[in-house]
Amino acid sequence: MPSVLTNRTLLEPKSVADALKMLREEGPLVPMAGCTDLYVALNFGTLRESRFLDLWRLRSLRSIDVRRDTLVIGALTTFTDLIRSSVIRRRLPMLAAAAREVGGVQIQNRGTIGGNVANGSPAGDSLPVLAAADAAVVLASAAGTRRVPFTAFYTGYRQSVRRPDELIVAFEIPPVRGRQYFRKVGTRAAQAISKVVIAGVVPEGRAARREPVRIALGSVAPTVVRASRTEAALAAGAPIAAAQRTLAEEIAPIDDIRSTADYRRRVAANLLALMLR
Ligand SMILES: Cc1cc2nc3c(=O)[nH]c(=O)nc-3n(C[C@H](O)[C@H](O)[C@H](O)COP(=O)(O)OP(=O)(O)OC[C@H]3O[C@@H](n4cnc5c(N)ncnc54)[C@H](O)[C@@H]3O)c2cc1C
Q1: Fewest CB within 10 A of the end CB: N or C in the chain?
Q2: Residue 56: is it exposed, middle or buried by C-beta count within 10 angstroms (0-12/13-18/19+)?
Q3: What values do phi and psi take at 231, rounded to 5?
Q4: Residue 31 vs residues 2, 115, 116, 184, 185: alpha-carbon distances, Å
Q5: Phi and psi dihedrals of 30, rounded to 5?
Q6: Which ranges of 133-260 does DSSP label H, i.e. alpha helix?
Q7: C-alpha span between 3 and 78 (Å, rounded)
């Protein structure tokens, strides 16, 4: 009996170099990590492509390191890896918090941070964290490696600057100073896509006078939003109520199956106040 896997080809590289060569010489290929998004698309018949590149065994992409004070997270790192990592809990607790809210345990065991970002859903839970943390996306191809600021990675709804011959190999995150905040509002605690998700950094002590508050939101626009106008208003001394009004104007939520634009605007403003207080 034909299944969703009939007439599909799977390439299994042994190394990252191998994978990049296959992408260049045998593309177009669809990279496949934990497959938690891809298999849904396959099952619903919305994925037309038939040739896949299996990244799952590329252990070198499954790592969490600190190199010259920069936190480097390999693209194949799963949400469970992030939750369990003492380095993540210490340096980027908002990412551990986001990972704990992804799907359920099974999804956390398979789903990867690279897949979350490459999939590009504006509801992806790790995206606002990476935006607020000033992360860079490390992209590799057979021709070399380049770094793209996370806030410049997406060009539109589920569109990015990643070329078909490139893989996301890692995320680089400079030290984050200040109190980190993450909050996801969904229908229930597990297995729920967000209605609104916010991540932010609130500088404390002396840094509060020098460094601006950082705010990023998901599920409120076609791509993750770094709320730079709201950040600028706060840096200029705006009270919370005024910053909430700026944020409501800065985001562009829609009515959809999960929520209404109105509700999302109101929740986003409330979350901002909670974060700042
Ligand atoms: C039941 C269920 C619940 C879920 N709940 C949540 C949730 O609460 N929050 C949330 O954010 N997501 C959720 N998801 C979505 C999904 O689990 C995440 O987006 C996950 O991070 C995807 O990672 P993956 O490794 O499984 O990606 P895959 O499915 O393997 O790939 C996803 C996309 O990324 C591409 N890709 C993967 N890795 C790379 C790479 N290194 N370089 C370039 N392209 C790459 C693939 O080609 C594909 O287009 C849920 C999914 C399911 C099925």
Answers
A1: N
A2: middle
A3: -60, -45
A4: 23, 9, 13, 28, 30
A5: -95, 115
A6: 207-210, 228-235, 240-250
A7: 28
Q: Ligand 1 center to residue 33 CA distance, Å?
A: 8
Residue 277 in tokens: 């207080």
The structure tokens listed for 146 are 């380049």
Which of 4, 35, 36, 39 to probe ligand 1 with, by most ligand atoms within 8 A of CB? Answer: 36
Under 8 Å between Cβ of 104 and 116: no
List pLDDT tens digits, range 159-208: 999 999 999 999 999 999 999 999 999 877 767 788 899 999 999 887 77
69 is written with which tokens? 């004070």
* Cα–Cα distance, 244 to 165 (Å, whole number): 41
What are the φ/ψ torsions at residue 10 (nearest 5 degrees)? -120, 120
CA nearest to 272, candidates 258, 252, 251: 251
* CB of 41 closer than 6 angstroms to any ligand 1 atom: no
Q: Please answer whether residues 177 and 170 qualify as being in contact, where contact means their C-beta atoms are separated by less than 8 angstroms.
A: no
Closest CA to 19 of 30, 9, 7: 30
pLDDT digit string, tens, across residues 15-64? 999 999 999 999 899 999 999 999 999 888 888 888 999 999 999 999 99
Q: How many residues does the chain have?
A: 277
In the reported structure, the alpha carbon of residue 38 is separated from the centroid of ligand 1 by a whole-number distance in angstroms of 7
Residue type, 102: V
Q: d(Cα 179, Cα 204) in Å, to the nearest integer? A: 7
Which one-letter DSSP state was computed for residue 16? H
Tokens (6 digits) for 54 = 């299996």
Statement: the pTM of the whole predicted model exceeds 0.90: yes
